[in-house]
Design a protein that fits this description.
Elements (H helix, E strand, L loop, with lengths): L1 H6 L3 E6 L1 H4 L8 H16 L3 E6 L2 H9 L8 H24 L5 E6 L1 H4 L2 H16 L3 E6 L13 H12 L3 E6 L20 E2 L2 H7 L12 H14 L3 E6 L5 H6 L6 E3 L5
Parallel strand pairs: 1-2, 1-5, 2-4, 3-4, 5-7, 6-8
Antiparallel strand pairs: 7-8
Helix pairs in contact: 3-5, 4-5, 8-10
The structure holds adenosine-5'-diphosphate.
The site of adenosine-5'-diphosphate has 24 residues, from helix 2 and helix 10.
Length: 265
């Protein structure tokens, strides 16, 4: 039953974590993007609609400039995002273009989701892009956001987007297979939790220290995002992004991650 709900999902949001979109040397992982584009094309040919929420602007900025990686000053961070966002979208445009797909960029802030006419405009833009077969790629608009008004991490941005659009599946691609009982990076006995029905129970029973070197939110924000989305009847999957054809395999049951089952199932 779970398999069917997942494979029948039509409106899918795919969130790409920083560690998934970058290679170990900090540059954009073109091989990953190539495989993502081919999966998105296959899914669209099957009649599904795909929205991408992509991290990676700041790292792409460092990769492009070759400096400022250790600057903690907010203006430098924002400047890096401004530089890196162009680089990021350039890679998406070229690689998705080679699969016959157009991409459109939406840079959003928390305020946009709290504002009636702005949310309406976001929805209308999303619907128009999707109706015309264009892949929307969303990121937080870092240049206008100071820390206090930031959504802060793309797990939550993906959750807001999924709810606003009325998506029926959110897939969060990370550097990890899913949610474990403990952080598997430093606990050999950590066990993958394949299905989560009661998020509160899980929150209290797992340990969630640490995050990958490029990541910003860690596992806690993935759980928060899943909480928000499942409340609206939408399922959420956390899975390892760098596995080949991961999205297609998740949909046909060949790969597992952690499935947060919404109350509607
Ligand atoms: P992303 O950039 O994909 O959003 P993050 O680095 O923010 O990823 O979060 C994923 C990281 O969270 C993993 O690499 C892992 O080290 C860490 N982590 C901490 N606790 C857990 C846990 N209980 N289960 C899975 N991952 C965990």
């Amino acid at each position: 039953m779970e398999r069917n709900t997942i494979s029948n999902s039509k409106k899918i949001v795919i969130k790409i974590g920083s560690s998934t979109i970058t290679s170990e040397d900090g540059t954009i992982d073109k091989k990953f993007l190539e495989n993502l584009a081919s999966q998105v094309k296959t899914l669209m040919d099957m009649g599904k609609e795909i929205v991408i929420v992509s991290s990676g602007a700041r790292i792409a900025g460092v990769g492009t400039l070759g400096k400022w990686s250790r600057k903690e000053d907010i203006h430098y961070k924002q400047a890096l995002c401004a530089i890196g966002q162009v680089e990021l979208m350039d890679s998406y445009r070229k690689i998705f273009g080679s699969h016959g797909l157009h991409v459109g960029q939406l840079l959003l802030t928390k305020e946009d989701f709290n504002h009636e006419s702005r949310t309406l405009n976001i929805r209308n833009t999303l619907f128009t892009l999707l109706d015309e077969g264009v892949v929307p790629i969303i990121n937080e608009n870092d240049t206008v956001c100071v820390e206090e008004i930031k959504i802060g991490d793309n797990d939550m941005l993906a959750a807001y987007t999924t709810v606003l659009w009325g998506g029926d599946l959110l897939i969060m691609l990370s550097d990890i297979e899913g949610i474990y009982t403990k952080n598997p990076q430093n606990n050999e006995d950590a066990r993958l939790i394949e299905v989560i029905e009661n998020i509160e129970e899980i929150e209290n029973s797992i340990s969630q220290d640490g995050k990958s070197s490029f990541g910003t939110g860690g596992i806690a924000t993935k759980i928060l995002a899943a909480k928000k989305v499942t409340k609206y009847g939408t399922n959420v999957i956390v899975a390892k992004g760098k596995k080949e054809n991961i999205v297609l395999k998740l949909l046909n049951g060949e790969e597992k991650g952690t499935l947060f089952l919404s109350k509607r199932n």
